[in-house]
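User: My notes are a mess, but here's the protein and zinc ion's SMILES. Can you give me a structure?
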Amino acid sequence: MRLYLVLLGPPGAGKGTQAHRLCEAFGLFRVATGDLLRRIARETHPLAARVRPVLEAGRLVDDATVLEVVSHYLDQAAGTHEGVVLDGYPRNLVQAEQLEDYLARRGETERLWCVLLDLPEAVAVRRLTGRRICPRCERVYNVDRIPPDGRCEACGTPLIQRTDDTEAVIQKRFQVYWEQTAPLVQYYETRDRLVRLDADRSEDKIFECLAGYVRQWLTRGG
Ligand SMILES: [Zn+2]
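Assistant: No problem, the inputs look usable. Here's the predicted complex:
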């Protein structure tokens, strides 16, 4: 693999959107832990028997199992993709160290880059509470793009607020972010693997910057 791109940033920074766009533009594989866990739970892989009951009970999958699932898909992607975008992984220092060990074993430590989508909390909260979705086609509308009539442009359904975009849930997500994920910024910074990007800009502008870096990183390592 030429590139392992870790996207970091507070809730509302647009990690998911940018991860999707990067994967589409550069043919990268997206590693989103939640998606991969749900995917493996449906497969006939030995790991499925361990993951399925945990997901069904609505509990959190432990770091060691998450690592096994992630490395299973990373191994697969190594044969088919030039790089991966890690969206929501690693989520804490333990996972970051596990990922580092995995890369060290493959001699690919230098192929990892971390981009911080930097956004003040107040701006992120405004973005998240202002977001609306279409309950029918699941299209997401950001605060500055909601149609004046409050209806979905694609299907005309009245837009709603997602239950996890309410103020209380958002506060909780930020608390988890500050406690567990924000320390990763320093972790990657001391290893000279971190790039900071101002995410208080339009989605297109952020993508343009990110794409510039990704292009460089993909063409670098041989
Ligand atoms: Zn719709």
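The chain is about 50% helix and 15% strand.
User: Great, I'll file this with my notes.
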